[in-house]
Amino acid sequence: MKKYVKYDNVEYFMPFLYCNDIFIPILEKLLRDEINPVKYVYGTPFCAWQGGRSSYAKINKISQIDIYLKSLKTYNIIPTFTFTNIYDIEEKLNDEYCNNLLDIAYKNDAHFIVATDSLYNHIKSRYPNAKMHCSVINPICKRIDDKNFDETRFYNEMLDKYEVVVIRPEYAIENTDKLDKLISDISRVEVLINQHCLYDCQYHKSHYIMLSKFNDDIFLKEEKNKKLLTMLEDLSKHCPKEQNIEYKNVCMSDEQVARLIDIGIKKIKIQGRHKNFDILFDELYQHFFNKDISKEEIRSKIDLISARMIQYNKKAAVIFAMK
After folding, report:
1. pLDDT score of 48
2. Structural domain boundaries in the chain
3. Does domain 11-321 fall into CATH 3.30.70?
């Protein structure tokens, strides 16, 4: 029997929540004869608390979100909301839509990824039992702001507060051989393995702030959006990736990932909320699928499953049909 999954002894975090979520039923059918290691899907409908790459799925009716999240339960997948906006987040804590979204997400056993203490405290004050994940944005920003930042201490302190703590991929790479000794509970650490940005980028915080502004409703007005685009263009001048200059990125090799798993890492994240279906499939083939099976064969299977689901409108189609 062919084994499609590269690693089945880990839990994958996938960019399928309101982004390329057709992969959820596709993988369930493709992996029907083996363990499906996709445990979490992350993303967020367009809202003031949203951070990172935007899904741009703006859903006005909370009832639709309730239906969507209930459909995910049939796949035994945990929806994980990326509430990682870091721009003036204190001013948005009382946003009505975001709090309604929080309510319905909590009701459906969702988890929450946050990057600020203020939003963590707000969610915990409302729902003390909420499952919280510490975003990688948190240590990235603190490290840039404080040259004496003790990263190891930070992760261990966060493990006392959060269910899952996302560590910088650079930290994981540089400390692989001793990571299990540095971190108090390595099984609750999550590592991003396909970060294509500049290694140890000093502009990370600036980029996150710009992305947070893009995700803020008050910046959607045309005149302000033009100004913001100009700011992003200025930032891009410092980014070799944007200029198509050869640079060292943080994307991990199979050997590096295997070593992390060997020392006890159980949670693996693949990014790609902003990528289209074809590009994201390429990422999955590189980091998720067993390369003993050809890329063409797996893609052919996926295309066939997708066509059948759309043609017959199976139960899985509810996930992407309502958007």
Report:
1. 85
2. 11-321
3. no
What distance in Å separates the CA atoms of residue 252 and residue 275, rounded to the nearest whole number?
19
Overall average pLDDT of the 286-297 stretch: 95
Q: List, in order, residues 6 or more apart from 193 with CB less than 8 Å away.
A: 169, 251, 252, 256, 257, 268, 269, 270, 287
Tokens of 315: 């139960």
Cα 307 to Cα 204: distance, rounded to the nearest angstrom: 39
Q: For residue range 56-105, what is the model confidence (pLDDT) as tens digits?
A: 566 778 889 999 999 998 999 999 999 998 877 888 899 999 999 999 99
Give, in degrees to the nearest 5, the angle at Cα 235 between 233 and 236.
65
- Longest alpha-carbon distance in the chain: 58
User: Distance between CA 85 and CA 48 in Å, rounded?
Assistant: 7
Under 8 Å between Cβ of 166 and 190: yes
Using DSSP bridges, classify how beta strands 194-198 and 249-251 pair: parallel, antiparallel or unpaired. Answer: antiparallel
Question: Of the candidates 16, 74, 9, which has an alpha carbon nearest to the alpha carbon of residue 283?
Answer: 16
Rounded CA-CA distance 23/106 in Å is 23
